């Protein structure tokens, strides 16, 4: 008897407890604790910071900085890596798609040369490319680090063994491209001299790289810089792989920027993010489904997805005026129109966005993800493209249908998002931008390079 009475009493307490619990849950729902929710997500999804990679050797960085800004690496001596990935342009070029050799100017005012064509794709920002997580380079991953630790590149077995890392493997290729840096047969350089690089057979990559080394090592200042960077390598044994390693070292040293409000937040500073950014983070890792593809410390799965991005620009290779993306590398039908998921650190300052710069606002980028069909069908070139590219939009209804039919199903968000929620996602993306970029990046431009050729700078920059 006594037992059952005490049990009854216990039952009453439980009822009160349950009521209190429900009340507190209701209270919680009406005033959502964003921090608590976000902590749960951060732990459940094991969200971590990126590993920026090892510190770079200063002698290698000094050589790399010279090479990166020196137009001597281009056939016509008129374009450098920096022209398309410039510190004053947040490591990109501010253009939807790039303008290669023959062009004049920097950034959005850059003009295409007579008889030249646009580069098919958008020059990506090159932030944090030294991070340990990277396995792929280029929008179609045509340079990759294989599971076996070997580089898979368009050069195959011809890639010099001296290439030290994935970013250096990437740096071997812009110099070989006719449109980007090498120039075309018959071109003369800025001094009216013949362009010897353009005459080399396109398949003969080793001869192109050797011709570049001949140019560079004829300059005493480069001999000194190479000797300092490679004290144990005799000059006769230096190859373009050594140059590429230096360029990569400079890119890593110069463009590693990940001290973001988001990382401050991950370290426990709950004031580092606005409520909008916190709500945006919850959407990003939750109902909006962004982290299905923009996953891991770099916010990319480094996989390829068809987002049915409007086809603009000259197109690429055999499929021009279309660009079939990863399909051109693999031949797999599932890779048609698929491009590598881009990373998102500092993405707010690296527009125009997408593999071909088809969108010039982040609202439009996100709206495209959320309703691909509406965005593609309603794509307005006058809104998003400069006049000289508007006529390149491939708007054949059959093509649009085909692209839409194979859109990656992972793109579908759990529900329709409101305009306010899109702004919250943008607030989160803003929290992925390192304020240090604005403060420090402009100071990376050298005043001169060893060849004596001109160094691209933004003229009339504020405060200069
Ligand atoms: C004419 C403009 C131009 C020049 C010059 C140029 N690039 Fe690029 N860069 C691009 C474009 C466009 C892409 C994307 C191409 C693609 O994915 O097919 C790119 C891609 C890259 C990437 C890949 C980033 C990623 O994550 O996929 C890196 C790194 C890079 N360039 C570094 C360099 C270096 C180093 C040089 C000089 C050796 C250089 N670029 C010269 C326009 C240029
Ligand atoms: C199915 C995989 C997938 C999902 C899900 C996804 N993205 Fe993307 N995202 C991509 C790919 C792939 C691209 C590049 C597509 C192209 O250029 O053709 C991209 C491009 C972007 C860009 C432009 C970046 C740049 O440098 O050009 C931003 C910003 C972006 N996504 C944000 C988001 C947000 C926010 C969400 C959630 C609403 C999201 N993504 C969901 C795969 C995805």
Question: What does this entry show, briefly?
Answer:
The chain has 19 helices and 5 strands. With 464 residues, the chain is mainly alpha-helical. The strands form 2 sheets. Strands 1-2-3 form a 3-stranded antiparallel β-sheet. Strands 4-5 form a two-stranded antiparallel sheet.
How does this model look, in words?
The protein has 464 residues and is mostly helical. It folds into 2 domains: 58-257 and 438-444, Orthogonal Bundle (Cytochrome Bc1 Complex, Chain D, domain 2); 265-435, Cytochrome c-like domain (Cytochrome Bc1 Complex, Chain D, domain 2), CATH 1.10.760.10. It has helices spanning 2-30, 34-44, 58-69, 81-84, 166-171, 178-182, 205-217, 220-229, 240-255, 261-266, 275-284, 327-330, 362-370, 372-377, 381-384, 387-390, 397-405, 419-430, 436-440, and strands at 136-137, 143-145, 151-152, 304-306, 338-340. It has a 3-stranded antiparallel sheet with strand order 1-2-3. The longest helix has 29 residues, at 2-30. It is globular, with a radius of gyration of 26 Å. It binds heme C (2 copies). Residues 288-290, 292-294, 305, 307, 309, 339, 341-342, 347, 350, 353-355, 362, 365-366, 369, 408, 410-411, 425 line the site of one heme C. One heme C binds at residues 288-290, 292-294, 305, 307, 309, 339, 341-342, 347, 350, 353-355, 362, 365-366, 369, 408, 410-411, 425.
Topology:
Layout: H1 2-30, H2 34-44, H3 58-69, H4 81-84, E1 136-137, E2 143-145, E3 151-152, H5 166-171, H6 178-182, H7 205-217, H8 220-229, H9 240-255, H10 261-266, H11 275-284, E4 304-306, H12 327-330, E5 338-340, H13 362-370, H14 372-377, H15 381-384, H16 387-390, H17 397-405, H18 419-430, H19 436-440
Antiparallel strand pairs: 1-2, 2-3, 4-5
Helix pairs in contact: 2-11, 3-8, 3-9, 11-18, 13-18
The structure holds heme C (2 copies).
């Amino acid at each position: 008897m006594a037992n059952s009475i005490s049990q009854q009493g216990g039952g009453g307490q439980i009822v009160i407890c349950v009521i209190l619990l429900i009340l507190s849950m209701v209270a919680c729902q009406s005033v959502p604790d964003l921090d608590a929710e976000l902590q749960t997500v951060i732990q459940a999804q094991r969200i971590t910071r990126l590993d920026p990679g090892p510190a770079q050797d200063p002698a290698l960085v000094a050589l790399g900085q010279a090479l990166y800004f020196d137009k001597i690496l281009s056939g016509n001596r008129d374009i450098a890596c920096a022209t398309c990935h410039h510190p004053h342009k947040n490591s990109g070029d501010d253009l939807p798609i790039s303008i290669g050799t023959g062009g004049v100017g920097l950034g959005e005012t850059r003009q295409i040369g007579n008889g030249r064509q646009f580069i098919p794709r958008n020059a990506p920002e090159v932030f944090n490319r030294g991070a340990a997580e990277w396995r792929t380079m280029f929008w179609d991953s045509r340079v990759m680090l294989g599971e076996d630790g070997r580089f898979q590149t368009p050069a195959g077995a011809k890639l010099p063994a001296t290439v030290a890392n994935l970013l250096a493997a990437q740096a071997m290729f812009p110099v070989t491209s006719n449109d980007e840096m090498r120039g075309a047969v018959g071109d003369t350089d800025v001094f009216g001299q013949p362009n010897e690089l353009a005459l080399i057979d396109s398949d003969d990559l080793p001869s192109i790289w050797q011709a570049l080394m001949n140019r560079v090592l004829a300059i005493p200042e480069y001999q000194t810089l190479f000797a300092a960077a490679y004290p144990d390598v005799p000059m006769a044994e230096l190859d373009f792989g050594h140059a590429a390693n230096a360029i990569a070292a400079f890119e890593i040293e110069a463009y590693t920027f990940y001290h973001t409000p988001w990382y401050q937040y991950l370290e426990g500073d709950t004031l580092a993010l606005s409520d909008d950014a916190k709500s945006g983070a919850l959407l990003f890792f939750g109902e909006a489904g962004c982290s299905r593809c923009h996953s891991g410390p770099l916010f990319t799965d480094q996989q390829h997805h068809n987002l049915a991005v409007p086809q603009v620009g000259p197109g690429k290779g055999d499929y021009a005026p279309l660009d079939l993306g990863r399909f051109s590398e693999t031949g797999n039908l599932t890779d048609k129109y698929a491009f590598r998921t881009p990373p998102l650190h500092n993405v707010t300052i690296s527009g125009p966005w997408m593999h071909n710069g088809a969108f010039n606002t982040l609202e439009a980028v996100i709206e495209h993800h959320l309703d691909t069909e509406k965005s593609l069908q309603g794509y307005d070139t006058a809104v998003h493209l400069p006049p000289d590219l508007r006529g390149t939009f491939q708007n054949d209804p059959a093509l649009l249908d085909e692209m839409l039919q194979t859109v990656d199903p992972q793109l579908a968000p759990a529900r329709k998002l409101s305009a306010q929620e899109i702004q919250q996602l943008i607030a989160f993306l803003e929290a992925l931008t390192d304020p240090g970029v604005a403060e420090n990046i402009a100071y990376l431009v050298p005043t001169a390079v060893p060849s004596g050729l001109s160094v691209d700078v933004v003229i009339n920059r504020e405060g200069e």
